[in-house]
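User: Okay, second chain of the day. Same drill as before: sequence in, structure tokens out.
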Amino acid sequence: MTQLLLGIAPEWTPTLDNFVAGRNVELLSALRQALAARQGERGFYIWGEAGAGKSHLLQAAAGTARAAGLDAAYACGEVPQAAQVVAVDGVEKLDAAAQIELFSLYNRQREHGGMLLVSGAQAPAFLPLRDDLRTRLGWGLVYQVHALDDAEKTQALKQHAQARGFDLPNEVTTYLLRHGRRDLPALLATLDALDEHCLRLKRAASVPLLKEVMQG
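Assistant: Same drill. Structure tokens below.
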């Protein structure tokens, strides 16, 4: 009730804890271990279809590193400055100059024991990048990020709603999965819009309100 009166929804931040692993349990475990140990394998390349959770994992890894007192940087489609933990999202978007920057960054991270996480849409061998960079990205741990099935998406949606502080009826989840876009970022964005719509109207989430959001 207080939340409805104030009209405030808690901010949602991607973390390793709120990532619904599905078939990505091994990847999630490897990331946790690498971030906690600060030694061992320091290079990760993750790939998969749009909406599979690559950006979530890279942002979450950077956030976990900062929470542990480490210097961390995240960027999408560009190369950030060197840090103890660097995450580069969407490597296939890098132009020729940025690819040279990433190649140099890779070598610096490896020399100084820094951690580098890179994501892309394809496995390293099929990336449209310069040969030396493509080879380097395949040297570390390489994981495919598998998209969630409907049951796992339902879990992710309910978890997201809980984090924002509102109840998500089963019929709303079912309707959203049946009629909304299939990728998880779009589903979560629709859920955020529904939450804001409910707060404005001071009403509980329902299928009619969801229809209004999706039609709008």
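The chain has a mean pLDDT of 90.

User: Thanks, on to the next one.
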